[in-house]
Amino acid sequence: MKKPLVFILSDSVGDTAELVMKAGLSQFLTNDYDIQRIPYVEDKQTVDETLQIVSEKEGILGFTVVDPELRQYINEQTSKLDIEAIDIMGPMMDAMGRAFKNEPRFEPGLVYKLDKDYFKRIESIEFAVRYDDGRDPRGISRADIVLIGVSRTSKTPLSQYLAHKRLKVANVPVMPEVDVPEELFNIDPKKCIGLKIDPDKLNNIRKERLKALGLGEHANYAHKKRIEEELVYFNQIIDKIGCEVIDVSNKAVEETANIILQKHKALSSDLKVE
């Protein structure tokens, strides 16, 4: 059997076309083939040059082009040159247009853009897990947002929520017995958010937490005096950093997250202007 020579022509990166062509080739029980990819094709001249090579080398062509005029041109030229060609996107878009009674967007690379968005979200989620609860202070300098607060101020769920919005978030717990990482004082304070909470509210939250763990609610963790000490220390750290503070006492995680997202958006805009 002659070794297949496959050409991939695309108005984007060509990943979709190559994947489909490989899936087809696998049905012929062969791994011995050559693939040549021609990405970001936007003009007829590039099409003509590619088809000339495909014809000379007796190759097979798979293409993904969303522009209807260019797609029609490729189909016409491959027919004239007697090239075996597979229009991967065309028939599918035509069928969907009939079913949806709507026109496609005719914008190349949308799947690739969606993939980039997906992988950025996954990367942010992994970042939030890796740098949760001050586990590794090296994440502070790499984070988009750094959350600072005493225990039970929703640092972890906030980090995860913001990660789903594609932000890299590290969070740092504050307690009097432990020095906060020095990295906190070496980054832009605008990236830091202090999470403030009412002492009585925190007392109730911690008592409920102890109950859920099967522990007595009178542990030092839930004592008002202990909580007040932690909050005094928290205020000292925040004052030293000079960052903004959000009172989370009566806010849902989503509400706090939206405030942070707005602040981050404003910060990003300021940086672009500079």
Structural account:
This protein is an alpha/beta fold. It has two domains: 5-108, Rossmann fold (3-Layer(aba) Sandwich), CATH 3.40.50; 116-273, Rossmann fold, CATH 3.40.50. It contains ten helices and eight strands. The protein has helices at residues 15-26, 44-56, 68-80, 90-100, 110-130, 138-142, 155-163, 199-212, 224-241, 253-273; strands at residues 5-10, 34-38, 60-64, 84-87, 145-149, 169-173, 192-196, 244-247. The strands form two sheets. Strands 2-1-3-4 form a four-stranded parallel beta sheet, sandwiched between helices. A four-stranded parallel beta sheet has the order 6-5-7-8, with helices on both faces. Helix 1 links the parallel strand 1 and strand 2. The longest helix is centred in the middle third of the chain and has 21 residues, at 110-130. The mean pLDDT is 89.
Topology readout:
Blueprint: E1 5-10, H1 15-26, E2 34-38, H2 44-56, E3 60-64, H3 68-80, E4 84-87, H4 90-100, H5 110-130, H6 138-142, E5 145-149, H7 155-163, E6 169-173, E7 192-196, H8 199-212, H9 224-241, E8 244-247, H10 253-273
Parallel strand pairs: 1-2, 1-3, 3-4, 5-6, 5-7, 7-8
